Amino acid sequence: MRERLYWIVVGGLSFWLPTIVVSVALHQNLNLWMLNVVPLAGVALLGAASWVHAKRLPKWEWILAGIWVLGPVSMLLPSVFFQALSSPNIPGERTWMILFCLFPPMTLWMAVLNGMIFSVLFVTVVLPCLAMCRRQKRTVP
């Protein structure tokens, strides 16, 4: 269980954190290409680092879970740096934000809105294939 949680957190951060850092550094002046290449580079770097350090591939399926689970929080985080807090007169706003962050399918919707849909769909297709390849190599005598 600890290993799974580790890969969920590390995988989600490797996908979302580079985009957050670049977004903050460039004051949200990112183009569509950069929004989709930077997170893929983060996941590729995680795979390479795992291979170099431990001589084994990461748990791709748990990395994908981390990407989907940490997605809403990670996409809302850069707006905290650039926008003032909203007015406290909106009833239930914080409750809705927390509920959005706890609902992983919001990752897909928010990725459509901010332009990261291509990288999210790419990892959603590729990472399960990599997980199956890793499993097949492990079971071959």
Written description of the protein model:
The chain has 141 residues and is mostly helical. Helix content is 79%, strand content 0%. It has six helices and no strands. The chain has helices spanning 2-25, 32-54, 60-82, 93-101, 106-114, 117-139. α1 (2-25) packs antiparallel against α2 and α1 (2-25) packs parallel to α3 (60-82). The two termini are 27 Å apart. 26% of the residues are buried.
Question: What secondary-structure arrangement, pairings included, does this model have?
Answer:
Blueprint: H1 2-25, H2 32-54, H3 60-82, H4 93-101, H5 106-114, H6 117-139
Helix pairs in contact: 1-2, 1-3, 2-6, 3-5, 3-6, 5-6
Q: Rough shape?
A: globular
- The topology string of helices and strands comes to HHHHHH
Low-confidence sequence ranges? none
Helix content: over 70%
Largest sheet: none
Mean pLDDT: 84
Number of helical segments with 4 or more residues: 6
Structural class by SSE content: mainly alpha
* Radius of gyration, whole Å: 17 Å
User: How large a portion of the residues is in β-strands, by DSSP E?
Assistant: under 5%
* Intertermini distance: 27 Å
Number of beta strands? 0
Descriptive keywords:
single chain; mainly alpha; 79% helix; 0% strand
Structure at a glance:
The protein is mainly α and 141 residues long. The chain contains 6 helices and no strands. The protein is globular.
